[in-house]
Write a structure and sequence with these properties.
This is tRNA modification GTPase MnmE. It holds the Pfam family MMR_HSR1. It is found in: Cytoplasm. Keywords: Cytoplasm, GTP-binding, Hydrolase, Magnesium, Metal-binding, Nucleotide-binding, Potassium, tRNA processing. Strand 9 and strand 10 form a beta hairpin. Helix content is 43%, strand content 18%. The chain has 15 helices and 13 strands. By secondary structure, the protein is of the alpha/beta class. The strands form two sheets. A seven-stranded mixed beta sheet has the order 3-4-5-6-2-1-7. A six-stranded mixed beta sheet has the order 9-10-8-11-12-13, with helices on both faces. Helix 6 packs antiparallel against helix 14, helix 7 packs antiparallel against helix 13 and helix 13 packs antiparallel against helix 14. The chain folds into three domains: 114 residues, Probable tRNA modification gtpase trme, domain 1 (Gyrase A, domain 2, 2-Layer Sandwich); 128 residues, tRNA modification GTPase MnmE domain 2 (Four Helix Bundle (Hemerythrin (Met), subunit A), Up-down Bundle), CATH 1.20.120.430; 155 residues, Rossmann fold (3-Layer(aba) Sandwich), CATH 3.40.50.300.
Length: 447
């Protein structure tokens, strides 16, 4: 992917704004810039972190007035000499500027190539590089906080501490091999077990944090389910304060799941309005009901809505980690003179049509996501690749613990080194070109 002697160029901002930034990085970045830029000083003569004003021209044709920001190696994002050219955001100007720089010796960057060079140049480790993409994609305060903490290295520091502890244990076992004939035990098995169990507990905590981290990163999935005509679509519209879902008295109006998002206190909730649950001979409606059950299976929170005047609830097969909130809707239609209806324990009385009872529901939604770990500064895993690597590391550690009393020192040390290996794949101490290509291909061109 990377050819270190190349100088790469790409737009670093979305097309169509008032201002555009074109980024160029590599050994010839300053020299190429000076072939098209004219100002009071040349970019090649300027110190790092200097902003120059001038024009970009192709021969006698002036393309635009620009600002050129100079970055000197190794004090740049990539660790190379780099320039960022701020021009007007015209599509024509950006296109012509890129073509001009390519003609003068740069080449167009591939997706993620700037960040890939930052990783290969030691400016970022792999988990920090991945956090750059998460930061760009963040759609809520919580997702932004999560990506920022990871990008600044707090996550990497904790992983490095775990690897360091495991390396110390492996080194003690290797010392026993060096003195094998003397039957010296450098790694006391009782202390070794205590150390591995302590490290395992830390890995378990990171693994357990993934449920929260993934929910924050992708948005907390909330399925709205119930029988037809209990007010599921009306509830979605009320939550969003807009007519997002079609509301009708005709049963089976909602067939395909309708998804919309709501930001509550910096956390993104993804609401999925589903087809009404009932037995039907309508093939299309039945397909919608199957999708409703699939939405329930994927959700972290299930809002099960029923008519307050008819508290019949469809049975749902929920996991222990799923939160169910029962909602007795249409309290506005209940006859005050009629005998009171007995609602299930914990059910929230609500009128989605009038908006009554919405605040207790919002409080329940907030309480269902414990984001205190973000405020406490605890490390939270949000990347599925990291989650998988942590599971592999835990398995290797379990194998070492299982063989602590029976395995010889060399095999025991190998199990510990497997745990070290898997932790190293997260931060990039151990990686392959295939993994790097897969990670950075998901980035935008200018990053």
């Amino acid at each position: 992917m990377n050819t270190p002697n190349d100088t790469i160029v790409a737009p670093a901002t979305a097309v169509g704004g008032a201002i555009a930034v074109v980024r160029m990085s590599g050994p010839s970045a300053l020299a190429i810039c000076d072939t098209v830029f004219s100002g009071a000083r040349r970019a090649g003569e300027a110190a790092g972190y200097t902003v120059l004003y001038g024009t970009i021209a192709d021969g006698a044709r002036v393309l635009d007035d620009v600002l050129v920001t100079v970055f000197r190696a190794p004090h740049s994002y990539t660790g190379e000499d780099a320039v960022e050219i701020s021009c007007h955001g015209s599509r024509y100007i950006v296109r012509e500027l890129l073509a001009l720089l390519v003609r003068r010796g740069a080449r167009m960057a591939t997706p993620g190539e700037f960040t890939s060079r930052a990783f290969l140049g030691g400016k970022l480790d792999l988990s920090q590089a991945e956090a750059v993409a998460d930061l760009i994609a963040s759609g809520s305060r919580a997702a932004h906080t999560l990506a920022t903490d990871q990008m600044r290295g707090g996550y990497s520091a904790e992983l490095e501490t775990l690897r360091g502890e495991l390396l110390r244990l492996a080194s003690l076992l290797e010392l026993e091999l060096d003195f094998g004939e003397e039957e010296v035990e450098f790694a006391d098995r009782t202390e070794l077990r205590a150390a591995m169990e302590r490290i395992g507990a830390k890995i378990d905590r990171l693994i357990d944090s993934f449920a929260l981290g993934n929910a924050i990163k992708e948005g907390v999935a909330v399925a709205i389910v119930g029988r037809p005509n209990v007010g599921k679509s009306t509830l979605l519209n009320r939550l969003l304060n807009e007519e997002r879902a079609l509301v009708s008295e005709i049963p089976g109006t909602t067939r395909d799941p309708i998804e919309a998002t709501l930001n509550l206190d910096g956390i993104l909730y993804r609401f999925i309005d589903t087809a009404g649950l009932r037995t039907t001979d309508d093939t299309v409606e039945r397909m919608g009901i199957e999708r409703a059950y699939a939405s329930v299976a994927r959700a972290q929170i299930v809002l099960q809505v029923f008519d307050a005047a008819d508290p019949a609830i469809e049975p749902l097969d929920l996991r222990p980690d799923q939160c169910r909130i029962l909602i007795a809707n249409k309290i506005d239609r209940m006859d005050p003179a009629a005998a009171p209806v007995s609602l299930p324990d914990g059910a929230l009385p609500l009128s989605a049509r009038e908006g009554r009872g919405m605040e207790p529901l919002l409080e329940r939604l907030r309480a269902a996501v414990d984001a205190s770990a973000l405020d406490d500064g605890r490390t939270i895993v949000s990347n599925s690749r990291h989650y998988e690597a942590l599971h592999h590391a835990r398995t290797a550690l379990d194998d070492a613990l299982g063989g602590l009393e029976t395995l010889p020192s060399d095999l025991l040390g190998e199990e510990i080194r497997q745990a070290i290996f898997h932790l190293g794949t997260i931060t990039g101490e151990i990686t392959t070109d295939e993994v790097l290509g897969q990670i950075f291909s998901k980035f935008c061109i200018g990053k």
